[in-house]
């Protein structure tokens, strides 16, 4: 309720400063822009509750979008196969993160930092640093289309994934295992939970969502961009932390992450409407993240 109140207060302040914020077109634009970050943040919630981190999602977005765009634009591959290939790239990166995290003692921060660089490098190598323009209407509909002429397709995907992730975390054994492993890995192991399998699932799912986000973003930009997703992992982590998920693991809610992602989206949109420089926006986001993490630390000490 606290962060929901914070979101409402933020909306009121921005609406007072610029009435255009409350127009239907702008609100739909906010939801569309927020959707890409939300895909990443939903999976990041699972990873952070597990006690891990995934810094590779931005780079995975780039390489998945590039692969899909190249198959459609340069090799005339059917759209379904091209999208499946892009998703497979994301899944493979996530599986690699999950396998190494589950079978070694290397910290997830280092593992995903390495794959972040591998993914970004692969995107540049595949495209020679140049964007891949896609003129396919079917491909562009994925991220730029409307359902019923009203609902943007990225928003529809957001609704579906929010429901899916909520069910996974609250109605399945996998969700309970994620909370258990994040709360106390030793207790989870003694209770018979396969910790390696749980970690592998969380990171693989994160890779899948990053791949999907990359394809949607490429469709919205009508091209596969090797620079896509730069710092996307930071916005995703910010949304998760603002949503109340503990960076030490064991606690978090999908609903909180949704509100956190909306706060990030509304903040970015509002600062643009008010005319704040993009350079200052980084500073504002950084301060917001710091305050959120500090509030989490205080809350855990007083609990």
Would you give an account of this structure?
With 303 residues, the chain is an all-alpha fold. The chain has a domain at 30-229: ABC transporter involved in vitamin B12 uptake, BtuC (Orthogonal Bundle), CATH 1.10.3470. 76% of the residues lie in helices and 3% in strands. It is built from 13 helices and four strands. It has helices at residues 2-17, 24-49, 57-73, 79-103, 108-127, 137-144, 153-171, 173-183, 185-190, 195-220, 232-242, 254-274, 278-302, and strands at 132-133, 146-147, 151-152, 223-224. A two-stranded antiparallel ribbon has the order 1-4. It has a two-stranded antiparallel sheet with strand order 2-3. Strand 2 (146-147) and strand 3 (151-152) form a beta hairpin. Helix 1 packs parallel to helix 12 and helix 2 (24-49) packs across helix 11. This is Ribose ABC superfamily ATP binding cassette transporter, membrane protein. Keywords: Cell membrane, Membrane, Transmembrane, Transmembrane helix. The chain crosses the membrane at residues 39-72, 145-169, 200-222, 254-273, 279-298. It is found in: Cell membrane. InterPro entries: ABC_transp_permease.
């Amino acid at each position: 309720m606290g962060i929901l109140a914070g979101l409402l207060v933020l909306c009121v302040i921005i609406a007072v400063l610029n009435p255009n914020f409350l127009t239907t077109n702008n609100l739909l634009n906010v939801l569309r822009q927020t959707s890409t970050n939300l895909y990443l943040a939903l999976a990041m919630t699972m990873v952070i509750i597990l006690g891990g981190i995934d810094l590779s999602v931005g780079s995975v977005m780039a390489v998945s979008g590039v692969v899909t765009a190249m198959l459609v634009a340069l090799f005339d591959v059917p759209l379904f196969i091209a999208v499946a290939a892009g998703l497979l790239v994301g899944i493979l990166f996530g599986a690699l993160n999950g396998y190494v995290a589950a079978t070694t003692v290397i910290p997830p921060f280092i593992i995903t930092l390495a794959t972040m660089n591998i993914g970004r490098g692969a995107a540049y190598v595949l495209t020679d640093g140049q964007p891949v323009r896609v003129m396919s209407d079917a491909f562009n509909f994925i991220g730029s289309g409307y359902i019923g002429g009203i609902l943007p397709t990225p928003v529809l995907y957001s609704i579906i994934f929010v429901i899916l992730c909520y069910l996974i975390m609250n109605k399945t054994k996998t969700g309970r295992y994620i909370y258990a492993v994040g709360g106390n890995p030793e207790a989870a192991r003694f209770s018979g939970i396969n910790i390696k399998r749980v970690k592998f699932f969380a990171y693989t799912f994160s890779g899948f969502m990053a791949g999907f986000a990359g394809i949607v973003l490429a469709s919205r930009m009508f091209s596969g961009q090797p620079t896509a997703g730069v710092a996307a992992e930071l916005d995703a982590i910010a949304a998760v932390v603002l949503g109340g998920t503990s960076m030490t693991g064991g606690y978090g809610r999908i609903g909180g992450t949704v509100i956190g992602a909306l706060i990030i989206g509304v903040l970015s949109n509002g600062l643009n409407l008010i005319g704040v420089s993009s350079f200052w926006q980084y500073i504002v986001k950084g301060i917001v993240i710091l305050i959120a993490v500090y509030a989490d630390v205080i809350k855990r000490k007083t609990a």
